[in-house]
Amino acid sequence: MAVELLKGKVHKYGDNVDTDVIIPARYLNITDRRELGSHCLEDLDKNFVKKVVSGDFIVAGKNFGSGSSREQAVIAIKEAGVAAVIAVSFARIFFRNAINIGLPIIECQDAAVAIADGDRVEIDLSRGIIKDVTRKKHWQAQPFPEFLRKLIDAGGLLNYVRSNRQVR
Amino acid sequence: MSMTLAEKIIAKHAGRNSVQPGEFVEAKVDICLGNDITAPLAIEQFEKLGFGKVFDAERICLVPDHFTPSKDIKSAQQVASLRQFVQKYGIKHWWEIGRAGVEHSLLPEQGVVLPGDLIIGADSHTCTYGAIGAFAVGIGSTDLAACFGTGKVWLKVPPTIRVIYEGAPQTWVGGKDYILALLGQLGVDGALYKVLEFGGSAVRNLPVSGRFTMCNMTIEAGAKTGIIEPDGVAVKFVEVSAERPYEIQHGDSDAAFESTIKIDVSGLEPQVALPYLPSNVKPISQVSNIVVDQVFIGSCTNGSLDDLRVAAKILDGRKVHPAVRLIVIPTTPTVYVNAIKEGLIEKFVKAGAAIGPCTCGPCLGGHMGVLARGERACATSNRNFVGRMGHPESEVYLTNPAVAAATAIAGKIVHPEEIVGKVS
Distance between CA atoms of A159 and A146, rounded to whole angstroms? Predict the structure, then answer.
């Protein structure tokens, strides 16, 4: 398996970034994915979509993605071009949604605290290594449990369900 | 091996003798649900799977309740996609607008969700059904899509925190205050990935409506769900409308809880959650001079008949403050009809309230009472995040229905006693 190395700039936010600020309800009548992406984080940081470049990362504090179950929050982040989210912790429905539709997420308290806004970061997803190039520091995230690894390797929940169905 | 109530239900649905916190299981689902903003995405994902049929047309619920009656063309398209899916696959549990209500009030009332069930819903407040002894968790649209096809869900078995409420509450204090007080202690991630199991005499003395309110807001502490051991009160509620047989589960008396929290409600004042977190809670005596523009009584948290009765007691014969809009939304058509029969609706309208159709509407800033820049609302709903009810520079204060009704009259957040005097 080729080592997938993600490289990008960090947009840093605090604790409890909820899904209402990631994609406000006034946009939940939108089904076009790209349009959802154009409103990503609008109520937290109006300039986010102007600043973000494809391949960038969001780094945040604890309980990222809390509140509403809206999967549109994960879609908006993906469509805005964010390659991965690093946080101290994730709210559980957001966590599921990200795993299910393939937004790379990494729980790593030390990294999430130390990395600053604007830092250049490299992430080796398969090995769970986060490197802050700006600060010349690196961290090892806890690996995913085996079951989640299977889901991730399958390419998300739909592919996992599809391949299990063929086996049966 | 001893298990908590939540573990018992998970083990049974995973075909296991026992489960332990931290394990991953694939569990059979009794009921899955989605609404007009989460189900369209699930339907799109399900069609990509190419199953051609759903696992069981009787165990899927679709409730158009968020932006309904459709607020604009895009919302109408979303409901249309639900309608189409319902017809294509012969989905049994579908409520057309007019028969639909706020999903988490409607499904228990109609006897669709039952004790001992394992329920998943593409809505974070699915945890509400724990009040009748079900294990009910919020999930995303893709989880729902997979469940449409397989009837299963993947779950990590959560540890359980037990919360014991004891004591006799003061007048105007109820389930909303119990859960807000806990949120104030735990914070918005204090129960992350965990189950909050409620017990104690104060919980047993609550009507089912107050228990639904408590379980409803467990997600606000990050919990996977809330749950209460079903007792006579719960069974009496369920028996009225249960649409199929069910099997009540009980936790073992020696089950291992991760921790136990004790709360004495006897001195508890009505609680208020200040912007912008549901955990930013203060007793009402510490909240002064919060002038409001709007009051909302409704939502899956506090829009039950019991809640409307409480509000009507305070609003009866009084007038809403000239500078305040009061919006009252009964959660289901049955609640609505009963509120008419009991004369509650007349009291609200005479007091100067606007009555909405059964919808989530203003709770999530959808429609039927969206806030302008700089406006402030007192709401009986569950979230007060930035922009939750409208403009990102608006504010939401969360309270119980009695405080909300008193606030509508006073024009600022007040204890109900300031309107009706002390009740001995």
Answer: 17
- Which residues share a beta bridge with B152? B28
The answer to whether B237 and B139 have CB atoms below 8 angstroms apart is: no
Is B396 among the domain residues?
yes
In this structure, is residue B278 part of a structural domain? Answer: yes
Residue B267 covered by a domain: no
Inter-axis angle of helices B73-89 and B39-49, to 10 degrees? 50
CA atoms B300, B301, B306, B311: torsion sign:
negative
> Would the CB atoms of A62 and B189 count as touching at under 8 Å?
yes
Tokens linked to B346: 């007349």
Provide CB contacts within 8 A for B87, sequence distance 6+. Answer: none
- Residue B111 backbone zone (phi > 0: left; psi -120 to 50: alpha; other: beta): left
pLDDT at A143: 85
Q: What interface predicted TM-score (ipTM) does this complex get?
A: 0.96
Q: Which residues in B lie closer than 8 A to residue A101 (C-beta atoms)?
A: 140, 142
* Cis amide leading into B64 (omega within 30): no
Same domain, B364 and B235: no
CA distance B102 to A1: 48
pTM: 0.97
Structure tokens, B198: 């409620």
Average pLDDT, chain B: 98
* A–B interface: beta-carbon pairs under 8 A: 139
Residue B424 banded pLDDT, cuts 50, 70, 90 = low
Chain A residue with minimal CA distance to B137? Answer: A93
Domain that holds residue B81: 5-262
Question: How far is Cα B274 from Cα B392, in angstroms, rounded to an integer?
Answer: 15
CB atoms within 10 A of CB B317: 8
Other C-beta atoms closer than 10 Å to the C-beta of A143 total 11
Using an 8 Å Cβ cutoff, are B38 and A69 in contact? yes
The DSSP string of B14-52 is TT-S---TT-EEEEE-SEEEEETTTHHHHHHHHHHHT--
Residues B247 and B317 both lie in one domain? no
Q: Which of B262, B290, B325 is the last residue of a domain?
A: B262
- Contacts with A70 from chain B: Cβ below 8 Å: 37-38, 140
Q: What is the CATH number of the domain that holds B206?
A: 3.30.499.10
The answer to whether residue B11 is domain-embedded is: yes
Which among B234, B262, B290 is the end of a domain? B262
Query: In terms of domains, do B237 and B325 share one?
Result: no
Query: What domains, with CATH codes, occur in chain A?
Result: 5-143 (3.20.19.10)
Q: Are A63 and B188 a contacting pair at CB < 8 A?
A: yes
| Count of residues making up chain A | 168
Tally of domains in chain B: 2
Same domain, B251 and B317: no
CA distances from B128 to A69, B215, B220, B360 (A): 14, 5, 12, 15
Residues of chain A neighbouring B153 (CB-CB closer than 8 A): none
- Residues A161 and A151: their CA atoms lie apart, in Å, by 9
Verify that B276 and B258 share a domain, yes or no.
no
Q: Which residues pair with A138 in a beta bridge?
A: A131
Summarised one tens digit per residue, pLDDT across range B338-378 is 999 999 999 999 999 999 999 999 999 999 999 999 999 99
Q: Please, how many CA atoms are within 13 Å of residue B375, restricted to the half-sphere of its CB?
A: 20
CA B252 from chain centre, in angstroms, equals 27
CB contact under 8 A, B142 and A162: no
Q: Which residues of B touch A26 (CB under 8 A)?
A: 365-366
